[in-house]
């Protein structure tokens, strides 16, 4: 049973809807819960088998497949067809790819093992920046995808970053096909205005029952957009530092997101108010249990009379990493010129609530902070549930 149309939902609305539907309908498979992941689903192996029928797969010699569980069948198909299989290292911590090298004369059983996450560790060799990878086909996981080829991942940006890095390395070309493998219920209408210029689009969608060619004409990312990379992300991905110094030597502008606050703020604020309103017509409750201990609450000393005001509008900031300090969030808020009149920090629950004087200011904050990454985590930013009955 397909999900209802996504309408004017935000990316997070769509992700939550897909994750909830997969769990509630009994379609979710190990690892569970699927929330926060590229979800594994009943029929994923069957969907992966359709890869063999694609001409772009038959022609490909080197295939890059993400390490997610629902793509295990795609990794196996590449190995069984004796293609070179490249799998990105999890969270890009130790490099970009591992090349899976099955032992000579490997049995079916060993190939099956090579396709699992443990097998990738046991049978792989790292590929450095100078490994001359030439990827002919890219297979990525998705949380949701539209028949037009718009893709929504789990929100951390790693698939987009991997693709951008492959472009910078010269490992993929503009016409390198991209395939995603999902359950039928993950194929949804997605509004094009939700897409950013760094978002990866797909050319083929494989489900347990269908093969969809999207004929997507939207250009794919043309390399790393340094103005969207934070210092935190750079610190977590060593290979990104190497790529950055190479691109700097080649004369490219490699200024990071947090090194150009005024410009970053202008870019983010350029999103129209209509889009922000559309993305926040259905705010949701903040996840997590009741606060433990005393949350950290700060008021703006310049405007003490606004504290507790009925007219204040609250913005929810979630997915805060455990290592993040309140000072780092405050510094980001200053940088994007969206300092709230009151900040309620609930670090133990990985969230914070920001009070703004009015709805317009709160909407601007949501718009400015959308897609911001702190401590390596993409923040979830939206109007708090308490605003649902207002405005």
Summarize the SSE layout with pairings.
Elements: H1 11-24, H2 44-49, H3 55-59, E1 62-65, H4 72-80, E2 84-88, E3 97-100, H5 108-114, H6 117-122, E4 124-127, E5 137-140, E6 144-145, E7 151-152, H7 158-169, E8 178-181, E9 204-206, E10 211-213, H8 231-236, H9 238-249, H10 261-269, H11 273-279, E11 296-299, E12 313-318, H12 326-335, E13 342-346, E14 351-356, H13 359-369, E15 373-374, E16 377-378, E17 380-383
Parallel strand pairs: 1-2, 1-5, 5-8, 8-9
Antiparallel strand pairs: 2-3, 3-4, 6-7, 9-10, 11-13, 12-14, 12-17, 13-14, 15-16
Summed up, the helix count is 13
Taken as a percent bin, the fraction of beta residues is 15-25%
Briefly, what CATH class of the domain at 11-213? Alpha Beta
| CATH T-level topology of the domain at 11-213 | Rossmann fold
Q: What can be said about the biggest beta sheet? A: 8 strands, mixed
User: How big is the Rg?
Assistant: 22 Å
**Strand adjacency order, main sheet:** 4-3-2-1-5-8-9-10
Distance between the termini: 34 Å
Uncertain residue ranges: 263-294, 300-309
Helical percent range? 25-40%
Class based on secondary structure composition and strand pairing: alpha+beta
- Just name the CATH architecture of the domain at 11-213: 3-Layer(aba) Sandwich
Average pLDDT level:
82
Q: Write the CATH homologous superfamily of the domain at 11-213.
A: NagB/RpiA/CoA transferase-like
Overall geometric form: globular
Q: Would you count the extended β strands for me?
A: 17
Instruction: Give the topology string: H per helix, E per strand.
Output: HHHEHEEHHEEEEHEEEHHHHEEHEEHEEE
């Amino acid at each position: 049973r397909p999900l209802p149309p996504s309408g004017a939902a935000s990316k997070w609305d769509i992700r939550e809807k897909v994750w909830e539907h997969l769990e509630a309908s009994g379609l979710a498979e190990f690892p569970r819960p699927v929330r926060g992941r590229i979800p594994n689903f009943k029929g994923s192996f069957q969907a992966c088998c359709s890869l063999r029928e694609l001409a772009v797969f038959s022609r490909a010699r080197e295939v890059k497949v993400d390490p997610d569980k629902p793509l295990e069948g795609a990794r196996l198909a590449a190995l069984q067809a004796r293609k070179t299989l490249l799998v990105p290292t999890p969270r890009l911590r130790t490099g970009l790819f591992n090349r899976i090298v099955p032992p000579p004369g490997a049995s079916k059983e060993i190939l099956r093992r090579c396709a699992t996450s443990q097998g990738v560790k046991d049978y792989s060799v790292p590929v450095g920046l100078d490994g001359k990878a030439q990827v002919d086909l890219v297979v990525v996981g998705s949380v949701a995808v539209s028949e037009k080829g718009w893709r929504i991942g789990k929100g951390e940006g790693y698939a987009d970053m991997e693709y951008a890095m492959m472009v910078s390395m010269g490992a993929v070309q503009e016409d390198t096909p991209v395939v995603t493998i999902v359950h039928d219920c993950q194929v949804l209408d997605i509004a094009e205005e939700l897409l950013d210029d760094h978002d990866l689009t797909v050319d083929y969608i494989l489900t347990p029952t269908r093969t969809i060619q999207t004929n997507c004409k939207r250009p794919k990312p043309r390399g790393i957009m340094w103005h969207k990379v934070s210092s935190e992300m750079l610190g977590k991905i060593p290979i990104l530092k190497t790529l950055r110094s190479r691109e700097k030597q080649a004369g490219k502008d490699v200024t990071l997101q947090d090194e150009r606050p005024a410009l970053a703020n202008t870019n983010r604020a350029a999103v129209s108010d209509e889009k922000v309103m559309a993305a926040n017509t259905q705010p949701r409750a903040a996840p997590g249990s009741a606060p433990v201990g005393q949350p950290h609450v700060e008021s703006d000393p310049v405007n003490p009379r606004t504290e507790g005001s009925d007219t204040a509008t609250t913005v929810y900031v979630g997915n805060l990493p455990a290592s993040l300090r309140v000072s780092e969030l405050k510094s980001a808020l200053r940088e994007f010129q969206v300092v709230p009149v009151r900040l309620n920090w609930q670090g133990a629950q990985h969230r914070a609530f920001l009070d703004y004087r009015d709805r317009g200011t709160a909407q601007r904050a949501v718009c400015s902070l959308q897609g911001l990454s702190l401590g390596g985590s993409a923040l979830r930013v939206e109007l708090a549930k308490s605003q649902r009955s207002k405005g």
